[in-house]
Write a structure and sequence with these properties.
Strand order of the largest sheet: 2-1-3-4-11-10-9-6-7
CATH topology: Rossmann fold
Number of strands: 11
CATH architecture: 3-Layer(aba) Sandwich
Number of helices: 4
Shape: globular
Radius of gyration: 14 Å
Helix content: 10-25%
Number of domains: 1
Largest sheet: 9 strands, mixed
Order of helices and strands: EHEEHEHEEEEEEEH
Strand content: 25-35%
Length: 185
């Protein structure tokens, strides 16, 4: 059975990320973001959302692990920031129901959602520029970078696939599970 750890960045929905993965048959645990990287024994990691970029613990070091990583909201922003992208304040600060346009129907994480999907997202902070080697895989009229990917094993979404307001959230987790399973074949 594939094991995925959810890294707790003190977000209000972290337990829902664990539940969504468990509901699709994943062996999943929530781990604190100060867990030493060498103690992680998982086939994939989800960097959860959270309220504060100053409280990301060891998330930067987790990006050096040889497992697929899915960053959600703050988790994606951490990925972008650590790997040379740019993160800044968004024009819209609160949570909102947003229509997201999928740019790459071949992307292993969000491609199956093409051409568009409805999501629940916060844009207090957002990725302004993706790191070198990444592509923007989704955008909206609220945010230019709603999702990003390096095409292999690093993915991020600005929205929250774990909440009921996101129409195809379970599919995002199923796609991430498939990425982790293919990596371990």
């Amino acid at each position: 059975m594939t094991r995925i750890d959810v890294v707790d960045n003190h977000g209000q929905f972290t337990h829902l990320e664990q539940r969504a993965l468990r509901d699709i048959g994943v062996d999943v645990s929530i781990i604190d973001n100060d867990t030493p990287p060498e103690e992680i024994d998982a086939d994939g990691l989800v960097l959860s959302g959270g309220p504060d970029r100053d409280r990301i613990g060891n998330c930067a070091e987790y990006l050096d692990l040889d497992v697929p990583v899915l960053g959600i909201c703050l988790g994606m922003q951490v990925m972008a920031d650590v790997q040379g992208g740019e993160v800044g304040g968004g024009d819209y600060g609160g949570y909102a129901d947003v229509t997201v346009d999928i740019h790459d129907d071949e992307d292993p994480l969000v491609g199956s959602l093409a051409p568009e999907t409805r999501v629940w997202a916060s844009h207090a902070d957002e990725v302004k520029e993706v790191p070198e080697g990444y592509e923007v895989t989704a955008s909206s009229d609220v945010c230019d970078v709603e999702a990003m990917s390096n095409g292999e094993d690093r993915f991020g979404v600005q929205w929250h696939p774990e909440v009921a307001h996101t129409e195809e959230g379970e599919e995002v987790f199923e796609n991430f599970l498939s990425i982790c399973e293919r990596r371990n074949e």
